[in-house]
Amino acid sequence: MGSAHIGFKSLMRKFKAVLQPGCQPLVHRVVGYADIANDWAPDLRFLVRVGSAEEREGVERLQNTGLTNIFWAEDAALEDGDVAVPNPHQEEVVVLFRESDTHHSLFMTNRCNSYCLMCSQPPTAADDSWLVEEAIDAVRHLRKSPDVLGLTGGEPLLLGVGLRRVLDAVAVHHPSTRVEVLTNGRLFANSKIASQILEDLTVSVKWLIPLYGHADFVHDFVVQTPGAFDETLAGLLLLQMHRQEIQLRVVLIEPVLQVLPELAGFVGRNLPFVREIALMGCEPIGFALANRDLCEVDLSEWASTLELSARVLRRHDIPHLLMNAPLCALPQRLWPVAHRSISDWKNVYAQECESCAVKSDCAGLFAWHEKGWKPAPLKTIEESEVVS
């Protein structure tokens, strides 16, 4: 199982580690050597961070007393509270969940029924249903309940009852946690699948669903799947029928920007029940690199389009936010709705950002922008340029 993670480099962190022989490639909670007694539980597995031969021997003495669910790992990159899968054959550890992160998510599947032009995690057809069991195991091993836990892919709805099992596990082990499921929503057009996942659901869920145009010829082109627009709308209406919270997601590539004001009006007129709409800078990785002519845009050149679209959304009283875009790429009038949204371990700042007056409020850049592109020419903003 451990080797299967190698294909998911853009979603998971891997660290080289010296691992105790016999350690299994299963989900473990990482704990410091001094905290074993406080954290230990019989129904969990623990990876104990050690820094010396004495500590390794201490773990082995505990094993000899009957604590067979602990193993040591020597790696300074691991943190207490990590949920991780050791891979002893490769001498590495895959971190599924890092407690100290701002954003938390679990990867559910690499399969998908869309092939979006800018997909950051190109889908594969391989059976990865074992990820459901890993996600449930990861939920059990969380030391603290996160405020929000994302479930992502691929397309999580392809898991059917498997997705529901993960949602129910969150409800049991972390009832205060809110879940955000990133899904294209198309399979909710199937009433059987919708019932499997939504009926008597007890955990609080926000469904993050992409919509890329006001008509099928735009949306279906972007997701490279005929009929996807109609299925997405049917799924959105079914979610509304079940009183589920919805965030629409709009990735700002050229075909989408060309119709963005029309899309904003369509949402306002036809989908007024959505909780909010997120306008998102494109992640320069995956299929976006192969479709660079359509996906690489200078957002600063689309400032008037972004402002007009925001005005349309305000007129329809649709809350909106901007994600994955540095502030210098956006008109200042939109800064109040721009969010720091890039996952901690993907997030970097360029040299121009170091002395910028608004760095602390800025989303920054994806770590791999140098191999792809920046969302706009970067600019250091002086304090005197900030309009209060």
UniProtKB/TrEMBL annotation:
NCBIfam families: rSAM_pair_HxsC. The keyword Iron-sulfur applies. Its cofactor is [4Fe-4S] cluster. PANTHER family: PQQA PEPTIDE CYCLASE, RADICAL SAM DOMAIN PROTEIN. InterPro entries: Aldolase_TIM, Radical_SAM_PqqE_MftC-like, rSAM, rSAM_paired_HxsC, rSAM_sf. Keywords: Iron, Iron-sulfur, Metal-binding, S-adenosyl-L-methionine. It comes from Ottowia thiooxydans. This is His-Xaa-Ser system radical SAM maturase HxsC. Transmembrane segments: none annotated.
